[in-house]
Amino acid sequence: MKIFLTGAAGFVGYHVAERLLSQGHEVVGFDSLNDYYSVQLKKDRLGQLAPKPGFTFRQGDLSIRDDVDAIMAEHPDITHIVHLAAQAGVRYSLADPCAYITANMMGHVVLLEAARHLTGLRHIVYASSSSVYGLNETMPFRETDAVDRPGSFYAVTKRAGELTAHAYAHLYGLRQTGLRFFTAYGPWGRPDMAYYKFARAITAGKPLTLYAGEGLARDFTYIDDIVSGVVAALAHEPEKGVSRVFNLGSDSPTPVSRLVALLESELGCKAVIEAKRRPLSDVEATWSSHEEITALTGWRPVVSLEEGVRRFVEWFRAYEPQEADAGSVTDFDCAAG
Ligand SMILES: NC(=O)c1ccc[n+]([C@@H]2O[C@H](COP(=O)([O-])OP(=O)(O)OC[C@H]3O[C@@H](n4cnc5c(N)ncnc54)[C@H](O)[C@@H]3O)[C@@H](O)[C@H]2O)c1
Description:
Layout: E1 2-6, H1 11-22, E2 26-31, H2 39-49, E3 55-59, H3 65-74, E4 80-83, H4 92-95, H5 97-115, E5 123-129, H6 153-172, E6 176-181, E7 184-185, H7 194-204, E8 207-211, E9 217-218, E10 221-222, H8 223-235, E11 243-248, E12 254-255, H9 256-267, E13 272-276, H10 291-297, H11 305-325
Parallel strand pairs: 1-2, 1-4, 2-3, 4-5, 5-6, 6-11, 7-10, 8-13
Antiparallel strand pairs: 9-12
Helix pairs in contact: 1-2, 1-8, 3-5, 5-6, 7-9, 9-11
Organism: Asaia siamensis
Domain NAD-dependent epimerase/dehydratase: 3-249
Keywords: NAD
């Protein structure tokens, strides 16, 4: 396979690239390296990928047609696309909703416009999100549930991505699979996400914000499981003109307070917790049914939260001091005692 991978410098994209390269595939990585979080972290991920045979990378913006056309012209023999580039983050979509239109809606359409002219293209797998379930209260979330009550503008743009994929499958015969990721976490993760922020706060002895409420839970899914799901979905292409979506989550909703306890235990420091009211954009709980993707591909999550947090903290301890040198607040003296 020759795979065009958008968001290759991102958290999930980096791990997907590693797996595909280790399987002997060619990966053409593409990313704008936007500064939503540490650009250095994105460069460091790319630094890990750069020496691997089969990897090429170009910096560019998916919402700019010339950028996408240029890379497609260089690689007209692309057979698969894994589209992960996005303006991520639920809460930031309150601060800058227009960034989500540009990256997630415009970027997706520009990609599909280019994709429909690739003669050897077999299949597009793209990232959707558990956030499309929005205010849905039926648990676990199933692909057959209505997804018309988004709780954030981020969710609006991820749902728009699914609808866009459907139209392009119908109009141009593209085979497409959307994957609704449920709270991916792990090494080389995103510093804007709660588990990473908690780890930084705990080690620095600074207060971390925990939203009040017994029911606050997330279906945390370890990055290697997410990657296995992406790769499994990619290998199971649908019929021509079919667009489908699958949940990709661990089917194991866990109180966020349990995540904090695991981080405390792995980091050996006590958290200073500040309880606040949950913002309207954050849903109370997520819980994925993964029956559909399991039935198609045999995929199952295999990494427990305990093991996943252990692996994250091991990486965090090794990587984060370099970030600290670059101005991050983290040190490893358990400032909170
Ligand atoms: N990590 C999660 O828990 C999670 C959950 C649900 C959905 N998702 C989705 O999975 C995908 C990957 O998420 P992630 O956690 O790796 O996020 P990430 O922010 O680490 O990676 C996204 C990458 O896309 C790049 N990008 C943004 N706009 C771009 C543009 N216009 N052109 C080119 N590149 C652009 C960014 O620079 C970044 O490196 C995203 O689509 C995200 O919405 C992630």
